[in-house]
Amino acid sequence: YYHNNTIIYLNGAFVKAAEATTDFYSQSLHYGYAVFEGIRSYQTASGETKIFKATEHYDRLRNSATALNMPYNWDTDELIEATYEVLSRNNLRNAYIRPVVYAPANMSFNPNTESYLLIAAWEMGLFLGEKLLRVMTSSFQRPNPKGFRIEAKASGHYVNSILASQEAKAKGFDEALLTDMNGYVAEGPGANVFYEKNGKLYTPATGNILPGITRATVIEICTELNIPVEERLFTTDELKQADAVFFCGTAAEVIGWQSLDDTVFPAKWENTLGRRIQLAYKNRVTEAVKGELID
Ligand code: PMP
């Protein structure tokens, strides 16, 4: 993720990651009390590097911080500018960008009067996702929305993601699928899910999931391409009747599934709505026009 000369943005200054310091008594380190974002930049068709949906991501960062009662005094445009500066100082074009808002030294559960903010970035190329995923229904459920601010991208929630992902990989699968506290399909450890059945797409309604920015983009693409899409709750049994399934997220982009547990999905990925959306998504992030996909 970083080398000796990597620059991060830390509390208003551009500093070397290898020399930056943080507080060992931070409430974030001890209790997982922090919020973050996962953003991508792409080298677009015109050659210019652009951060995809930067405003949406920094607005969500603010909402996540607010949901956790963390002071947040940054302006979205200011942070976008700082992010472009991080990219340029590190010579990055296709990158993954990780802003984190975290707490100062505080060993109590009391609120803080300030927050810290860092922005790191590293190289991450456009991923064509040709290999379909073998997914396992996790034995871990997503955090109960009555116990967590599930709509916030909070660091502590990711202990659940790590457990689910590690369990799936230890059992020989590529990724996990988690249900909510009522047993309905929720999401992957770091991605939202859509399934296709008889020419229509379905995705879990919000409430028990992270409202993904890629999920919203997929819904926008469906509107553009006249693909019907419905947001509603469904079970894993229903999901196993699907013609095809895909995950979507900033890091994962749009990636098809081969199977869930023992069930192999019948449609050929090349012929699915997911594949059409995958191509449209790549065109969108790279600002290429249809038929000029760059990879
Ligand atoms: N669900 C979870 C739990 C995630 O961590 C992510 C990644 N941020 C997503 C869904 C997808 O969200 P986005 O499309 O905004 O990256």
UniProtKB/TrEMBL annotation:
One Pfam family per UniProt: Aminotran_4
Membrane-spanning residues: none
EC number: 2.6.1.42
Cofactor dependence: pyridoxal 5'-phosphate
Domain of life of the organism encoding this protein: Bacteria
UniProt cross-references to Gene3D superfamilies, sorted A to Z: 3.30.470.10, D-amino Acid Aminotransferase, subunit A, domain 2
Pathway of action: Amino-acid biosynthesis; L-leucine biosynthesis; L-leucine from 3-methyl-2-oxobutanoate: step 4/4; Amino-acid biosynthesis; L-valine biosynthesis; L-valine from pyruvate: step 4/4; Amino-acid biosynthesis; L-isoleucine biosynthesis; L-isoleucine from 2-oxobutanoate: step 4/4
Catalytic reaction equation(s): L-isoleucine + 2-oxoglutarate = (S)-3-methyl-2-oxopentanoate + L-glutamate; L-valine + 2-oxoglutarate = 3-methyl-2-oxobutanoate + L-glutamate; L-leucine + 2-oxoglutarate = 4-methyl-2-oxopentanoate + L-glutamate
Example GO BP: L-leucine biosynthetic process
Key word Amino-acid biosynthesis present: yes
InterPro entries on file: Aminotrans_IV, Aminotransferase-like, B_amino_transI, BCAT-like_C, BCAT-like_N, Class-IV_PLP-Dep_Aminotrnsfr
Biological role: Acts on leucine, isoleucine and valine.
Family as reported in the entry's similarity comment: Belongs to the class-IV pyridoxal-phosphate-dependent aminotransferase family.
Name of the protein in question: Branched-chain-amino-acid aminotransferase
Lineage: Bacteria, Pseudomonadati, Bacteroidota, Chitinophagia, Chitinophagales
Gene: ilvE
